[in-house]
């Protein structure tokens, strides 16, 4: 699949723009040979996302998968990476907050590993710059896998004969913590996803979506303003701008001003281990990106998550506080929750109930077809909870109280329907004519 002219340059800038705590990642060069890819994943993007020297060879991937499933990497042999990122559940755990050793809950919801290789930074607050750094931190976090330090981890690994043999075969040396992370990251780099009904639709199959789903796509790009942060096109195939925003999710339970003042005194900028522990184990978790940058405009800001496979990766938001996509739409429809650091793009949307239904219907089309059964099950479960809507405030959404700005205009779909736009790669002559 070919990307439109100029996209390669844009992608290179985007993929190298993330600010992480670790050293700069290896040079990203389009040298790796991509595996067979689904229609929603560009070969060029895949090459740009794989650092030179860290290509996911079959041997590294096999060892990485073994380590990803290995509970002996935790202090009490009860938790593996897969505990919070189960492949059959879209590499999430389906829980609002993840649980580690001794059934300790962390302060964040587990994001999916699917397509994580394309992220500019890792974790909800971007505290890791590479998949390798991301692979290390949960092993050492007291509430996740609980190992005290890297030396203890590797002493345990070297005491398992099969791993001594495996690391020697793959890396030509005894096991090291860096090589362990390289192997896990190699496995994660092969967990890409881009074969949803939406992909068939956007590549020219007009029958891939229902009328309701197409209207949801039009609303997504128009009145609902979802594409402001979740644009889906060749430059942004993950439906994420890779940036950080305060949308008011945690504002109802935190005094951000006081918490930020305390955070300035506590957070040691650049201390990766401390920030990781504060993010998952303390009241400072809700400061989000601020923990990484200590910049006031980052208070309460979290990374825009991918919308791919969103139907099966709930509960939603960094704290798992929104149970359904109807709850998510209600949150945005009322403009979030007001707080001193609320993102300037947040405003009421004025969406009607049928429009919300169409948007939710569209979002479920972003799930990869390999998860069709689970996607249908999750849609049924969420629809059953549709009448329980703790985030709904129709009066604010419709402008009957409060003052959260003017509404976006309703597009004239007979003139230019956003559902006809956003083609990823090659366009047919008919579609090209429509776009002029």
Automatic annotation (TrEMBL):
<keyword id="KW-0349">Heme</keyword>
<protein>
    <recommendedName>
        <fullName>Cytochrome c domain-containing protein</fullName>
    </recommendedName>
</protein>
<dbReference type="InterPro" id="IPR004852">
    <property type="entry name" value="Di-haem_cyt_c_peroxidsae"/>
</dbReference>
<dbReference type="Pfam" id="PF03150">
    <property type="entry name" value="CCP_MauG"/>
</dbReference>
<keyword id="KW-0408">Iron</keyword>
<dbReference type="InterPro" id="IPR036909">
    <property type="entry name" value="Cyt_c-like_dom_sf"/>
</dbReference>
<feature type="domain" description="Cytochrome c">
    <location>
        <begin position="59"/>
        <end position="168"/>
    </location>
</feature>
<feature type="signal peptide">
    <location>
        <begin position="1"/>
        <end position="22"/>
    </location>
</feature>
<feature type="domain" description="Cytochrome c">
    <location>
        <begin position="211"/>
        <end position="367"/>
    </location>
</feature>
<keyword id="KW-0732">Signal</keyword>
<keyword id="KW-0479">Metal-binding</keyword>
<dbReference type="InterPro" id="IPR009056">
    <property type="entry name" value="Cyt_c-like_dom"/>
</dbReference>
<feature type="region of interest" description="Disordered">
    <location>
        <begin position="381"/>
        <end position="409"/>
    </location>
</feature>
<keyword id="KW-0560">Oxidoreductase</keyword>
<dbReference type="InterPro" id="IPR051395">
    <property type="entry name" value="Cytochrome_c_Peroxidase/MauG"/>
</dbReference>
